[in-house]
Amino acid sequence: MTAVYRIRQGLRALFAFSQPVDDTQAAQYLSPPLMACFQSMRRSEQLHSLNVLRTVQAQGFTPDDLAVAALLHDVGKSRYAFPIWQKTLVVLVRAFAPGVFRHWSSGSETHWLHRPFVLSEQHPAWSADMVANAGGSAGAVWLIAHHADPADDWRDHPHADLLRRLQAADDLN
Q: What is the pTM of this model?
């Protein structure tokens, strides 16, 4: 992800408080328990997820599994507060000190310094667990669990095309 992308994303998150969340679009795809997951996310994450959904829809036919994954791929981040400065720190450390990133992201989520790194690394699995526990389909859960994986790792999987679409939409937003 480029610096321009991160700056744009940071500004969106910073000013998210001033934008209402119209969750009508989300309600078209989410059952009440899944909607509760969506509503547990920070406003900036809800807005991001709705933008990811719109981008996926603009790509063409959008299966329900892909729509649900677009809306809930980051719900695991709701486990802990994740302020913008911590997101920035994670991006910088991952880019300039990958060994430190690997060490801190494998640390304890209860340690104040490690928490943002663990959250960044573990949120796909946490998101998938939350969606599975709320009754999400196996396809949506798989897409969520693997949305941060290199797409080439899954090129032979039946959902590989959907995964690439989700990742492209996430990267744009």
A: 0.85
